[in-house]
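Database export, one record per block. Field names are fixed; values are copied verbatim from the stored entry.
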Amino acid sequence: MIKTDILIIGAGPTGLFAVFEAGLLKLKCHLIDALPQPGGQCAEIYPKKPIYDIPGFPEVLAGDLVDNLMEQIKPFDPGFTLGERAETIEKQEDGSFIVTTNKGTKHHAPVVAIAGGLGSFEPRKPLLENLDKFEDKGVAYIIRDPEVYRNKKVVIAGGGDSALDWSIFLADVAAEVTLIHRRNEFRGALDSVEKVEELKKLGRINLITPAEITSLQGGDHLEGVTISREDEEIFLETDYFIPLFGLSPKLGPIGNWGLEIEKNAIKVDNTLDYQTNIPGIYAIGDVNTYPGKLKLILCGFHEATLMCQSAYKRIYPDKRYVMKYTTVSGIDGFDGSRKEAEKAVIKSIN
């Protein structure tokens, strides 16, 4: 049986940053993730997607963010159970928990932090008659390697941040980028909408709205799409069609743990520490919900920080903890060593 201080369900950015915050408090972490590597969606779905709202990084690729987080937590030597899904949880008489994976691996911890992002997910697919015929033959729902589209014609459909961001990114990669949305208004960030409009004026993105894809054409590989716009139909030659309509999330087995669920997310107390209705179980990142919730990596980092503070008090109720900044005087530089990290943050733990 694997024993740890905080068992983290989910090894995405929020779960990884929780390891760092816990490490500064001398708390050991172990992470469970169904994916074969850490990083969550950032590593599995869009490692080459640029992210613009991480403090200190005007732009950082999702995969690079994961690499940086892994480097940041290295001094605290977290454990990983990868390629396994957290299946069941049992509360013990002392208030601790045993979590067992679908492969039978047992984990014991006084605190469980669910950082499962959107949970298990699958892409939302458009209702097109022959869509499955061209899957992996010109139709893709996730962009893992933008170089696949180098000097190719690409049609993207969608009105959210992913559709906007990838249209902007691929404008420098593909031979031709066409963005199609069924409405004139987009759901994504205003800055991204403005960039798309600017690229349209420069002739680097074809923007067709309001419009919808009605059919796909081709032989062994996609050759074109038919677009319905108002009272006309347009045939557009293309090498790739990428519908980015978001992901359909599912909590999976965690949804059967007795947690309070609202709209497929776990309700937490955001007035203090992001604890669920079960004492000792927390939910941080996109998997949780509360009034005013924003599904941003930045918010997940904040939630992880407060969760770790609460976890420390739960694990060591009789110890006194005084937080200090990592820039505390007397430390000539934060070199990443666990010893100096602890000194920098903890003044006294009696």
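Remark 1: The CA atoms of residues 89 and 257 lie 7 Å apart.
Remark 2: The domain at 125-243 is CATH 3.50.50.60 (FAD/NAD(P)-binding domain).
End of record.
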